[in-house]
Amino acid sequence: MLNIPTQCDVVVIGGGPAGSLAATFLTQKGYEVVLLERQKHPRFHVGENLIPHFWKYTDIAQVSDDICSEGFIEKAGGTVAWNGVIRQMAFKDFGYTRPAYHVERERFDEILLRNAQQVGSTVIEEALVTQVDFSSDLQAQQTVHYRYLPDKSKRQIYCRFVVDASGQQSMVARQLDVRVPDNSFRFMSLWGYFKDSDYIGGNGQVCSRNQLGHIPPTTFVSSLSPTGNVGWAWHIPLRESTSVGLILPIEFMQRSKTQDLSWEKYFLQTCETTPILNQLLRTAKFQVGSFGKIADYSYRSTQVAGPGYFLIGDAAGFIDPIFSVGIVLGMYTAYLATWAIDRTMKKPQQYQQAQDFFCRQLMARLEVSRSLALPNYQSDAQQITQLAQQSIKFESSLEQELMHVVAHLTTRSDNFHTLLQNRASSVSIDKLKVLEGISF
Q1: What is the pTM of this model?
Q2: 403 lies in a domain?
Q3: In its keyword annotation, does this UniProt entry include Ion transport (predicted)?
């Protein structure tokens, strides 16, 4: 029988990458941590693209060896067909010696969750958090109410801090009514999985499925011309299948999709009519039952920390998956929240200082992500813009160059210039290759 504690130092809500790493980092520092996850791992999650920045956090969590031994698909970089121009970049050109990955999220997330257990975190799966009672007194306890789904019992646990890593559920943000939609990005996503798809390798050539073990793939992204090249598609080769998805403006969908056409059929028709993507899928077979969709997925929280709580990962905000920074940003915020909680536990008088630092750093990173992803970037607040500018300045020159090159993969590089007030114009984009075309 599972031994479920009723008291601990920190409760982490959610067992995705951000939640699992937060639990791991806090446990490593000697705190008693209980992680509550509403599903049973392994569980499905879309978003299979990992940039190599994640290694710094898995190294700290001492889980990198487990990830290496799993045999995920190593990817060389990215290939983008945008507004008729095809560009390609490679991570090795920016000093990264460890690979980026295409991962099955159900397996990747489970590795991180089991590692949290192994280091000593108490992990309770199938535990649905329903409410958190917060105290304004820093020394008082927070009460987390949850339903244990196997026996449908209602339970509660007391703790000093709550870390909300509940992803798109944004449990605490919704309860406190601080989650707001990002009106600059009213989009929806449709996705599904295909068997035996070709892919674009790091050599700029189309490769067959059986070459995956010899020629590393790239993540392929294509703008969708019917949307005015605002919407886009992804193509991510995995070990047994290929993840394919569409990002579409809701306003465009309201005009273009007829009511007698199902979302799944619309998705498949768009895949069939999108140049390059349709050629990559020409001999592939759609996996029946794999279709999914979500609308209005971009949002942020107006308050990401308060007395007794911190919001991390997608629970704090989510912009757009175009440059695959979501998982790494979640890992970073897990590390940042761990620092803030540890600082507060050891020096309670510095709680406000630690919380303010957490908020500034998280908001700055989210704003940088917005500037790289949004079709028409505008900052809502000058203070946030300044924080984002400072955040970029602290990055190495090579990392700044990478961000600049990534921005130039699409026609959204002006966003990056806007954020930096054109100071980025001196950054070289020599590492960005323009391909003459894709031969099939």
Answers
A1: 0.94
A2: yes
A3: no
